[in-house]
Amino acid sequence: MKKKEKSASAAQSISGKLRCPYCHERMEVKALKSLVCINNHTFDFAKQGYVNMLKKAVNTQYDDALFDARQRIISDAGLYAPVHDRIAEIIMDRTTEESLLFDAGSGEGSHLNMIQNKISSETLTGIGLDISKEGVLMAAKNYDGQVWIVGDLANPPFADGSCRFILNFLSPANYSEFKRILTDDGIIIKVIPGTNYLKELRTELFSNTEESEYENNDTLDLLKRNVTVVSEERITYSRSLAADSLKDLISMSPLGWHADEEQVKAFAGEGHKDITVDMHIVIAVKE
């Protein structure tokens, strides 16, 4: 079975939980080729194995180089492995029936793939959605077993109460839509950077500037104004990265987007620099 057909088949198993971004009617998979609603709005699966459900094309600041760097840091270097382990545990503690794990802002798909690979459940379907076509295309090329969608978090193509788990990993959130699509017993897993996240980049690239320090209070306050937090935990550790991985880290992080070549060379050096990962994992429910 080709990638296009595999993706269509995976979507077919959950098609009752998908809705049309135009008219909000239920979607069905036709001939392992397209998602179609009763009003005949049609979205074809691409040969690479994803489906574009954006109402109009969007240009983003993210390119292939950034997503390549992300994939290597997340999947190859394993920078976030302890965070993935913990999220997988949280999901496995609650997975007892057929359910959806929706990665809201999935980028090139590595976080979702790494987490789902740690979960021994055939009843959990992973869906990654991102507004960047380049990121979703890369996800579909690299990872099988999930449904990859180009879409908008302001209008996610899910029916009301369709998602048991919503993962929001270092990405913007749309809490009104999250609450609409979350099941009554579902949870939002929000991953937020802590004050020491990538502090080495801040110290060496932005010393004596306002970028040298970070606080997550605004993000937490917005979260708590919109949903009910049931637990918070913090995971902090360091990883030693080689020179190539340090360059990838700069390429993928907004902290490094304005760094010049000399700064990159100075930071990467000969490699084997300890990098701090400091994350808050916040679990929230609708009310």
What's the SSE blueprint?
Layout: H1 3-12, E1 27-30, E2 34-37, E3 42-44, E4 50-52, H2 64-76, H3 81-92, E5 99-104, H4 110-117, E6 124-130, H5 133-142, E7 147-150, E8 163-169, H6 175-181, E9 182-193, H7 199-205, H8 217-226, E10 228-241, H9 243-252, H10 261-268, E11 273-285
Parallel strand pairs: 4-7, 5-6, 5-8, 6-7, 8-9
Antiparallel strand pairs: 1-2, 2-3, 9-11, 10-11
Helix pairs in contact: 2-9, 3-4, 9-10
The total domain count is 1
- CATH-defined fold name: Rossmann fold
For the biggest β-sheet, the strand order reads 4-7-6-5-8-9-11-10
What's the average pLDDT?
91
Taking all Cα atoms into account, the compactness measure Rg is 19 Å
Number of helical segments with 4 or more residues: 10
Distance between the termini: 43 Å
Helix/strand order? HEEEEHHEHEHEEHEHHEHHE
Number of strands: 11
For the report, how would you describe the main beta sheet? 8 strands, mixed
Class by SSE composition: alpha/beta
Give the oligomer, counting copies of the same chain as homo and different chains as hetero. single chain
Give the strand content: 25-35%
CATH architecture: 3-Layer(aba) Sandwich
Cα shape: globular
Indicate the CATH class.
Answer: Alpha Beta
Helix content: 25-40%
Query: Could you list the spans in which at least 5 consecutive residues all have pLDDT below 50?
Result: none
